[in-house]
Amino acid sequence: MAENPPPLPLNETNLLSRLRDWRAARESELHAEGLDDDAAELPDPRAIDLVLRVGELMLASGESTEAVSEAMLSLSVAFELPRSEVSVTFTALTLSTHPGPDHPPITGERVVRRRTLDYFRVNELHTLVQDAALGQLELEGAVARLRAIKRARPPYPNWLIVTGFGLIASSASLMVGGQFIVAAAAFLATVLGDRASAFLARRGVAEFYQMTAAAVTASVIGVALLWASAQLGLGLHAGAIITGNIMALLPGRPLVSSLQDGISGSYVSATARLLEVFFTLGAIVSGVGAVAYTAVRLGVDMDLDNLPSAGTSVELPVLIGAAGIAMAFAVSLTVPPRMLPAIGVMGVLIWVIYAAVRFAADAPPIMGTVVGAVVIGMAGHWLATRTRRPVLPYVIPAIAPLLPGSTLYRGLLEITLGHAVDGLLSVSEAVAIGLALGAGVNLGGELVRAFQRGGLAGSGRRGRPAARRSRGAI
Q1: What is the pTM assigned to this prediction?
Q2: For the chain, which residues make up each domain, given as ranges?
Q3: DSSP structure class, residue 93
């Protein structure tokens, strides 16, 4: 008698096939005739709690709304929660499961009250979800793994994470032409600003004023060095200190996530994240603008003709600064150390592409930004697929070299010096560049996604909410 063939080894391809089959069966079950199960069993409450807690921790650690929804749905499949529906917004997560006609639906909700960007945890949570979806992790093991992730220490000590913020500013100041003294002052100014912000946080002060205090602290040091340089004839580009501090404070992560949520159809979360971006920009503008206005009234010479800018240079100090900004940004976001070399290369790549597009085609900054961001979006999604890691830890630090710190500083200074129209145009250009970064990264990801077989939740290409047409036939 012929033996039954051995089961296929469980790999990513089989997983996607299994989950797509489940998705098709689930959609038929949602019809009225699909609710006639006589042997319906109540789901394990531990599984419901696990799905909600994993989603809550992912959202609080900086993951996008769509990725959180996909992860929660994948866990619902893995632990056999029947007819599950997941809803994720900027601050709340809801999971509903319907055991059958003789049992009412079971719904649970979690609210995110505190957010701490921690891509180390995001990476570990993605691994947990993948292992569970591949059948390599039972419910008890998943619960224990989640507890371990919550208790785990980040890969860097706190002092190194704080140092990362300072290194962003010093690398940015080096990139825009600041000398060693200026880079060291930018490091000190940003660290002091971060400590001032942390002090206010411990006192219960709102985050808007924390960001304003950080911008004021660094700007005061920059203006003081600018005044000292003018008095002593040192010729230092002290404005690079303020530029570097702005680069460290600019909200790259919520900007990318807001556009990603909007494009994927999560409009409530997208609006909330975009408001977060503009409140952060408002705090930076308020802090830097107040210091610049005071400095001009006190007679400090702030010349518009000698503002720091990297232009389209690809000289070695600029490339080192680009790599330094990307890797320092990654450290401040607690990205796992093994990912840092790739992020440094991507930081150099986005700058080289930006400079090449602007130089070769005599294109405006926004065009070079879009092209560079699209390439980084494609590279980041490709790396995430190959390494089976989340994509944001790759792309968020990599776009940091193109954050419009110098453009925003120029706009604020022009407004302070009485050139209101020019200043508003420069600020608008800075906002446009930021939006171009987010849109370009997301476009790159969509180009990669178009040739993938499906997401972890098994929804495939057409089942994705962002892919559903609002009119006409598919």
Answers
A1: 0.81
A2: 12-34+41-152, 158-449
A3: E
